[in-house]
Amino acid sequence: MTALTRLRLKDFRNYETLSLDLDGRHVCLFGPNGAGKTNLLEAVSQLGPGRGLRSATLADLARHDAGGAWTISATVDDRRIGVGLETDGTSSKRVVRIDGAPSQASDLAELIRIVWLTPAMDGVFRGGASDRRRFFDRQVMAHIPSHGTAAARYERAMRERNALLERGHVDPAWADAIETRMAEAGAEIAVNRAHVLEALQAAVDARPEGFFPKGDLSLDGEAEQAAMAGEDFKTIFETLTEALRTGRRRDMAAGRTLSGPHRTDLAVIHRPTGMPAGDASTGQQKALLIGLILASAAALAKDGEGPSPILLLDEAAAHLDADRRAALFDELCALGGQAWLTGTEAFLFEAFGDRAQRFEVRDGEAKEA
Ligand SMILES: Nc1ncnc2c1ncn2[C@@H]1O[C@H](COP(=O)(O)OP(=O)(O)O)[C@@H](O)[C@H]1O
Ligand SMILES: [Mg+2]
């Protein structure tokens, strides 16, 4: 099982210094609101590529009243990972070290894969398409780390295209070049999403029946649907290129790009009722979301392409009754990756028994309980 066995923080959020020695079991953090439980999960999430669980900027992560620099170091399956922000007063830069050697953030993906569920995701089925797309893309990134750079390339090209269209007078050769870059990145995005949707659906279907209902997932984007139907990268690229070219006049009138993978929505059907997830009750939506995240972690655990996932579950236990909590912990133990859970009270984690280590968090300190 992939597990953190050591976590050290310096000037991270509300932690001046913190040192946690872990024995490889699951980790339960309890303590009052504002103690620093979510900050700890956020610190773990910084050990992977990407911006972590709150999508914060690197500067936001520095402890107020400290100098602006922060570090997180951890031992994961006997490898030492360090990430941080270094600053010399005028400029600052992200640093990544693996076993003491300077490394790239993208190298982290080979050592650690992280999936999380936070209260901020609760409204995802009821929110707008962009919330669901972001939620799904986060799962895609956990499976395919290069998805993030494809998305960034797509966004950059799209901004250039929008700026060009806004000027009203378009040089066709220039537009062609930008649209080619957009279509290349867009096809990569679509192929990644289709791949992960299939893996995720298979993992959902393979989950035990029980308290966390299953969902049926689909993506409404044409490029993703073509990828799901087995069309190859080149065909999807050509279709996207053509759609951008023929859509220029329409997009010029609208002042932005109206079609493409940046508009894709994830549809989720609550299988027990056959209803769209957004119409399910709040409790049903929460349970469905837990099931999806467990499936995402299970898909990572069995894809053979990297370490088993670390699962961060912020405040997930509080809303479950005792039987559901016990079922959740049993499923976590079967997954093969270390889970980190938070809650305000220690009793929430009783059903873990001796399968988890517990820490009481208070004012930026954590004590083993
Ligand atoms: N950059 C920062 N520097 C110092 N304290 C911070 C920083 N960011 C957040 N905090 C503090 O951390 C606390 C919240 O921690 P959090 O982990 O969200 O609590 P909880 O235990 O409820 O999950 C708040 O008191 C907040 O003011
Ligand atoms: Mg919290």
UniProtKB/TrEMBL annotation:
GO function term, MF aspect, one: single-stranded DNA binding
Primary location: cytoplasm
Gene3D superfamilies named among the record's database cross-references: P-loop containing nucleotide triphosphate hydrolases, RecF/RecN/SMC, N-terminal domain
Keywords recorded for this protein, A-Z: ATP-binding, Cytoplasm, DNA damage, DNA repair, DNA replication, DNA-binding, Nucleotide-binding, SOS response
Chain ranges of the RecF/RecN/SMC N-terminal domain: 4-334
Localization annotation: Cytoplasm
ATP-binding as UniProt keyword: yes
Sites where the protein binds ATP: 31-38
InterPro entries hit by this protein: DNA-binding_RecF (IPR001238), P-loop_NTPase (IPR027417), RecF/RecN/SMC_N (IPR003395), RecF_2 (IPR042174)
GO cellular component: cytoplasm
Record-stated family: Belongs to the RecF family.
Described purpose of this protein according to its UniProt entry: The RecF protein is involved in DNA metabolism; it is required for DNA replication and normal SOS inducibility. RecF binds preferentially to single-stranded, linear DNA. It also seems to bind ATP.
Name of protein: DNA replication and repair protein RecF
Organism expressing this protein natively: Henriciella mobilis
